[in-house]
Design brief:
By secondary structure, the protein is mostly helical. The protein has four helices and four strands; from the N terminus they run ααααββββ. The strands form two sheets. It has a two-stranded antiparallel ribbon with strand order 1-4. It has a two-stranded antiparallel ribbon with strand order 2-3.
Length: 195
């Protein structure tokens, strides 16, 4: 798999997670306020049973992908994007462990159900997690878009290194690799490869 494809797969997964975080933000948690207290724990239990498949597994894969991007990414990827993407995820996971996950566990044992202060805390602060997951997806979108634009379109993304002719003693070289892609290099003493 090429680094470009790997980056694109990370983007796809980030968009899935952005969608799920917005579902939680605008629908799932807010609708819990409307549930009858006697049905509340049944609804929350069903929600908890779905989390490993629909949320936790994709989050784990996304975190592994973000960590792998540190070493396996397109050469032109900016460092701020690789580390910013990882920071957004780690911050969201840490805050979930410290606050929202703990509050949800407390909510599961609270007989007040929709009137629980834990649900009030979740509703009042969950936007922070939403705010962290959205930039994670946006950063990957910007990087993917910039890399595709720089390459002249998706069909121009290099699949492997292509050898260039050996150039010696040139003061300045501009080589056309393909339509819309140019490689620039100052004084060249030896051969070089162009992506």
């Amino acid at each position: 798999m090429s680094p470009y494809v790997f980056l694109l797969l990370n983007l796809v997964l980030s968009f899935y997670l952005v969608g799920t975080i917005w579902a939680h933000e605008v629908d799932i948690f807010r609708s819990w306020k409307l549930i009858d207290p006697k049905d509340f724990h049944t609804v929350q239990g069903v929600h908890w049973h779905k989390l490993p498949y629909w949320i936790l597994t994709p989050l784990g894969v996304a975190l592994a992908g973000s960590i792998a991007l540190i070493w396996f990414h397109p050469e032109a990827s900016p460092n701020w994007a690789i580390w910013g993407n990882l920071f957004c995820q780690l911050a969201a996971h840490l805050l979930t462990a410290l606050y929202w996950g703990r509050w949800q566990a407390m909510l599961a044992n609270d007989d007040r159900g929709p009137a629980s202060p834990c649900l009030v805390k979740i509703l009042a602060t969950h936007w922070v997690r939403t705010l962290l997951i959205n930039p994670y997806g946006l950063i990957l979108l910007v990087v993917d878009t910039c890399l595709v634009s720089a390459c002249g379109g998706i069909e121009q993304i290099p699949r492997k290194r292509r050898p260039a002719s050996v150039l010696k003693g040139a003061d300045w070289v501009r080589i056309r690799v393909s339509d819309g892609i140019w490689a620039h290099r100052g004084r060249i003493e030896q051969g070089w490869n162009i992506l």
